[in-house]
């Protein structure tokens, strides 16, 4: 659970390599949250320097990154932050979510995660890293099986039984070889817990050392629901998950009219 030195680029054999590099670059900036020099980008993405130099020059010419000639580093430009405002409900909505995530991370000291369904997988859209030396570390943009993450399970809980059945069959056909086959009965049991309580707390699910408690955020402009979670080492989750759930359930993004039951967790 220690921070990794490099962010891994997915296998480009079935993707457009240049597009993967652009996306990985901006995910790296989001992860580091500071200006970066060419040499740092090359090291962390493990991409040839000539390719990164050409990429940064193109992005600079198109206005998506700014370059500091004194410090010789790059940073995403304000233009980039406005591209997705229409899809995320506008800048105010994006800022509200990020503000709450930062506040949660500052208040609790643990990693805060925002995720949504991406095809047949769960994708982490934003991560605020925890402050403890030993903490949950996940890269923004990374993908996980829905049924093996707390956020994925609460999102699955919004589907009907028939929809979940179709979803799992497609998942097994397309991703079972890489991620492992999902058992429908097991998935329905975990989804049932999330439906009964309005949240899900996983311990040792995606990683034997980590746990996450999660709830669903309201949908935004018809683009589907997102889930918000708080995660950390299993021992701290076991001790604090009820307190985290109360804090998570009380934030304004969820509203304050829906009560949740803190009756169960999953190991």
TrEMBL record:
PROSITE patterns tied to this protein: HTH_ICLR, ICLR_ED
One Gene Ontology term of the molecular function aspect: DNA-binding transcription factor activity
Domain IclR-ED: 79-266
Domain HTH iclR-type per the UniProt entry, residue ranges: 16-78
Single biological process term from Gene Ontology: negative regulation of DNA-templated transcription
Keywords: DNA-binding, Transcription, Transcription regulation
Protein name: ArsR family transcriptional regulator
């Amino acid at each position: 659970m220690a921070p990794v030195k490099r962010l891994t680029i997915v296998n480009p054999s079935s993707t457009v390599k240049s597009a993967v590099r652009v996306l990985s670059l901006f995910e790296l900036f989001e992860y580091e949250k500071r200006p970066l020099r060419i040499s740092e980008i090359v090291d962390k993405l493990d991409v040839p320097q000539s390719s990164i130099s050409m990429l940064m020059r193109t992005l600079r010419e198109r206005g998506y990154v700014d370059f500091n000639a004194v410090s010789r580093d790059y940073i995403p430009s304000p233009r980039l932050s406005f591209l997705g405002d229409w899809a995320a409900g506008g800048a105010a909505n994006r800022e509200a979510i990020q503000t709450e995530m930062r506040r949660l991370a500052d208040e609790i000291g643990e990693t805060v995660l925002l995720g949504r369904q991406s095809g047949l997988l769960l994708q982490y859209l934003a991560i605020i890293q925890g402050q403890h030396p030993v903490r949950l570390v996940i890269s923004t943009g990374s993908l996980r099986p829905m049924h093996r993450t707390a956020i994925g399970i609460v999102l699955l809980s919004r589907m009907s039984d028939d929809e979940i059945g179709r979803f799992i069959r497609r998942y097994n056909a397309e991703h079972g070889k890489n991620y492992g086959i999902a058992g429908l009965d097991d998935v329905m049991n975990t989804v049932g817990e999330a439906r009964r309580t309005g949240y899900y707390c996983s311990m040792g699910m995606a990683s034997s050392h980590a746990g996450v408690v999660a709830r669903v955020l309201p949908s935004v402009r018809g683009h589907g629901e997102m889930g918000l979670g708080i995660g950390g080492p299993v021992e701290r989750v076991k001790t604090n998950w009820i307190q985290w759930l109360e804090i998570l359930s009380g934030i304004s993004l969820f509203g304050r009219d829906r009560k949740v039951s803190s009756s169960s967790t999953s190991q």
